[in-house]
Write a structure and sequence with these properties.
The protein is an alpha+beta fold and 327 residues long. The protein has helices at residues 2-5, 9-19, 28-34, 70-73, 94-103, 131-147, 266-271, 273-326, and strands spanning 124-125, 151-157, 180-187, 190-204, 214-215, 221-222, 230-242, 253-255. Strands 1, 2, 3, 4, 7 and 8 form a six-stranded mixed beta sheet that branches. Strands 5-6 form a two-stranded antiparallel sheet.
Length: 327
């Protein structure tokens, strides 16, 4: 019945509860299969003012493009053995050591996470309590990728544009685009940007007692608005993601789970980098094909407009000639 209306079973059950339609009890369909179903209860009588129907409007999701078959046949990145994260960070990678030195001196922001720094280090955004674990994960990840023949580097990308010029001397100078810190790996001639982050939960603070009512200029009383404030609490759940790609039909994010930690998924992450790189190439080819098709369509429209204008001008000249002949 739910598939008939294009909704889920939970949505159909909620709609029935809102309209007062009785639902089958637990085990009803098993009794029907065994031939021992009970009688259906009658529909309740709707009172005055109660709706007889319920209209639900929802936005349909765009259909996903088909997954290219080339992604299933791509060879994974050769990983030597299984990636094991050390319990203690000893003899770290130079990039990891530089990151530890910079982030250990930083103070956490209001979210509880260590803020971005313009100093060259890995793209790691975690709380101070999770910093050691994130560094150990990054150290094992960098060593395994370099052992597989991949090139890893960290870089601060400067903004390409310049500051917008001021239109007058009284106008404040607008800032330019901020710098961006990236950690990227070169796989199959494609740069893939990596980032390790920590999930943060936001909790609403209890509001204090409202201040006494104030008197407005017209003599009426009004309550002063008390804004809602929040506190941010790091959860300790880490995430490893490829940040410079969109929806490509391949997995680009690996998170901590209830039963599986991020440390046990590093081998899978490195081996699937080749699939992500191929997906980026296929998307670039598709975007180029769409760009060429759009240019061809624009050229066809331009030629059609020129032909329409030529025919319109010919008809206008014919009308002028007829008018002159009539005179």
């Amino acid at each position: 019945m739910a598939g008939r209306y294009g909704v889920s079973g939970v949505a159909l059950a909620k709609t029935c509860r809102k309209l007062g339609v009785p639902l089958p009890p637990r085990g009803y369909w098993a009794k029907v299969k065994a031939g021992k179903a009970s009688k259906r209860p009658a529909l309740p009588v709707r009172g005055a003012g109660e709706p007889e129907n319920l209209v639900s409007r929802y936005r349909t999701r765009p259909t996903q493009p088909p997954r290219p078959p080339e992604l299933d046949a791509v060879a994974p990145v050769p990983v030597i053995g299984r990636i094991v994260v050390a319990d203690v960070l000893s003899d770290p990678h130079p990039l990891v050591e530089r990151t530890r030195r910079h982030l250990a001196q930083a103070k956490p922001a209001y979210t509880g996470l260590l803020p971005w720094t313009n100093k060259p280090c890995l793209d790691i955004t975690v709380s101070p309590d999770s910093l050691d674990r994130a560094l150990r994960i990054a150290d094992a990840l960098l060593n395994s990728m370099e052992a597989a023949g991949l090139r890893v580097e960290e870089r601060i990308l400067k903004p390409k544009g310049k500051r917008p010029p001021r239109r007058s001397i009284w106008e404040t100078q607008q800032p330019c685009e901020p710098e961006e810190r990236v950690t990227r790996v070169l796989c199959d001639d494609e740069w893939l940007e990596l980032a390790i982050s920590e999930r943060v939960e936001r909790h609403e603070r209890p509001k204090p007692d409202p201040p006494p009512r104030r008197i407005a200029w017209d003599g009426t009383f009004y309550d002063e608005h008390v804004p809602t404030t929040y506190t941010c609490e790091p959860t300790g759940m880490l995430s490893l993601a490829i940040t410079n790609v969109g929806r490509l039909g391949v997995q680009t994010t690996w998170n901590d789970g209830k039963r599986q930690r991020l440390e046990s998924r590093l081998t899978e992450f490195v081996s699937r980098l080749s699939a992500v790189a191929l997906a980026v190439k296929l998307r670039r080819v598709e975007e180029e094909r769409q760009r060429v098709a759009a240019l061809e369509e624009a050229e066809r429209r331009r030629i059609a407009e020129i032909e329409d204008e030529r025919r319109r001008w010919a008809r206008q000249q014919h009308r002028w000639a007829e008018q002159e002949r009539e005179k």
